[in-house]
Amino acid sequence: MNRTPHTEARSGTIGGNAVNSVETVTTTGNTAAQNTISDIPYSGGAQFIYFKITQANEDGSPDRAWTAPIWFDVSQAQPPGSPPPSTEDASKFVASKNSLVYHVSSDCRSAKAIKESNRITGAAAKQGRTPHQGCPIP
Ligand SMILES: [Zn+2]
Question: How many angstroms separate the alpha carbon of residue 78 from the centre of ligand 1?
């Protein structure tokens, strides 16, 4: 019996038109090999994607399974092709040489309290230190 699982990715948007099938991936036979579904366009706004898996049953009738929709997190979404956001700007790091934490910004209340004579800035501030929790504290 040569089963042919068939995976289909569908994506849609809130208030958009009918859900469109954006890409279909077909595997042949029973395999645990991974398939990659790529190039699903993200047009911005609230968008979801879900997968439809079809597999011929023993008697030839198709078995279907649907995954729950996966939502794009709009607040985290980046337009395609843009670099990942830089979460670190080492030039703004501040630490006290007597402390085991560093601050991501000199605007942090705790960073402002560091004595000038103990202050370390830049990438050196991070060396051997862990990030200040909740930094910068206003
Ligand atoms: Zn801080």
Answer: 27
Question: For the chain, what are the domain ranges?
Answer: 6-71, 90-131
47-63 pLDDT, tens digit each: 767 777 777 777 777 77
Q: From the CA of 131, how far away is ligand 1's center (Å)?
A: 8
Residue 40 has a pLDDT of: 66
| Ligand 1 mean position, distance from CA 63 (Å) | 55
Q: Give the distance (Å) from ligand 1 centre to CA of residue 44.
A: 33
User: At 115, is the secondary structure helix, strand, or coil?
Assistant: coil
Strands in 1-138 per DSSP E: 6-13, 20-26, 47-56, 62-66, 70-71, 94-96, 101-103, 119-121, 130-131
Helix (H) or strand (E) run with residue 6 in it? strand 6-13
Closest CA to 6 of 58, 60, 52: 52
pTM for this entry:
0.39
Measured CA to CA, the distance from residue 129 to residue 26 in angstroms comes to: 49
